[in-house]
Predict the structure.
Amino acid sequence: MSDIWAMPSGVPDLPPGQVHVWRLRTDRDPRLGAALLSAEERRRADAFRTDLLRARYVVAHAALRLLLGRAIDIPADRLRLRRNSWGKPELAEGDLRFNLSHSGPWALVALARGIEVGVDVEAVSHPPPMEVAGIAYSAVERAALAGLSGPALAAAFYAIWTRKEALSKGISRGFSFDFTGFTVSADPAERTSRPVLPPDLAGTDWHLHDLPPVEGATAALAVPAAGLEISTWCFEPGLWGL
């Protein structure tokens, strides 16, 4: 995987065995993408309490629809999405899998064919919200944070958080997954790692990858196998008509 977010000259193909992760800023005029959303997505957007959060949601989901539509050659506003039994969004037909995460002014979209993927981006705050560690981190992860402070604590905290979130989304269990029941690396320098999973997932082969730098944020990707070709791209709205 590259250590940069590349700017494509066109829309890259997505064959099996590859994972594409797209990065975009959501601080754009939401009117450009609002018409692409479904009625359910518009209702979800309207539920946000502030115009800023509403706009970020609209832009992120419009970009997701454009990416999905281009990948399967269906107009973005005609895509049929549904939620699986765990609440994870998916396409109603076909083998294209995706995951969306947005935090602060950033959104990430991960795409792959025939395999589940999970992605997470978190805007970094100083100090980090340590109460999350007490609720969602394993004993091993909490011990790794115990001797840290300042920037080192924030880096380790968000490395754990994004890796755990990406994995839970890839496994498709979301917040129904017991976050304290599995352990990820707390080392921000360990760019690729494997989690220690509970017994019911012992036969799986999930790998975690830290994504290239995102200004003011931390990001991670979870994939269910080794050896996948991972590409990281900048989403340029003009290329997609947004």
Observations:
- The mean pLDDT is 93.
- The radius of gyration is 17 Å.
